[in-house]
Description:
By secondary structure, chain A is α/β, with parallel strands linked by helices. Chain A contains eleven helices and five strands.
Amino acid sequence: MNKIIATLVQDNLDEILVNWKELMKEDSEERFFQIMSQSVIDNTSREFAELMVSNLLEGENKYENRLNIFTSKVVRFGWSISFVMKAINHFANIVYELLETEKIIVDENIKEYNTILTNWITPMRDGIVDTYAKTWERTVQLQKIALQELSASLIPVFDKISVMPLVGTIDTERAKLIMENLLEGVVKHRAEVVIIDITGVPVVDTMVAHHIIQAADAVRLVGAKCMLVGIRPEIAQTIVTLGINLKDFTTTSTLQRGVEQALAWTNRQIVEVEGN
Amino acid sequence: MSYRSSVEILTEWDIVAARQLGRNEAKEVGFGTVDQARITTAISELARNIYLYAGKGKIEIERISEGGKYGITIIASDEGPGIPDVRKVMEDGFSTSGGLGAGMPGVKRLMDTFKIDTVVGEGTVIKATKWIR
């Protein structure tokens, strides 16, 4: 019976594809049909159809291989998962209708054919969802790593002075990282002044403030001073309204002022050299 | 007429999502940057409380208007343990989690109106409104 369906699909592939594309166009807002060139649409559709058929005929291994290749291709196209699911549904429906009009499915064997169709479609869906999920998981994982790399590095800018620029949202995990890097860096660079720059932190709520205060306390314990710079006007206002006490901190509006202050603390200053 | 959108709070990153939603809404309603920061910070505090104490809940942002005034209401609701002593929570410096204890009183100061409904063992609903001046 599998063979019958497969042969039927293969013999009527062109007609099926035309119907399928028509259905997909009607049904989806996906930009795929508007953006992609006709040849790309034709090729992918054909590939899609061939994959659908290959599932009916070939052994497990080969199919899985092809499914992997196909899904990764689809993922690269940027098809949404709902689009792919629709594609499979429409394809199955068209084939079913075709089987009916060709009188291959009759009242006596309808149950059997239904089972075959279900066994045909379900693993395909599972496989595609699986591949999508894996791709997403991988992307999230990579982005997490990328974020961590961006996270919190302590940069020695002058002798005894280091800067930690913070960019983006600070969550618990990052706060821990900030603390670790800060302390490690202070010891490693023999910093006497550490400047924490929060220009790039979008929101300073009590938790963020709490973490910064803790980090500063810890820095003090290893014998360095901590300065908070890059406090934007609106952040300054919310900090005051929240009632967060930063009195123990030296704070400045910009990193530049912070560096000047830090140099002053270490008995240095920047002077202009007279040109020749 | 009101327009409401919401974010479920399940993980720490949902706090960021709620904040983002709040910022966008505040911007669209027409708040200035300082008030945007206030609203965003308030949402951050409320969402974090849900995450820390209730585990899961919801932040809803409602656009409101009344007599030609426009504003935003933040509704933070959860089915967590509830707050046994509301007065204590509203005191500066009170915290059960080792934090700064500035969150709840801070939110009250950041917003124009602040209302808290809590039943121990059933959950908490906090409504806070900010109007455009």
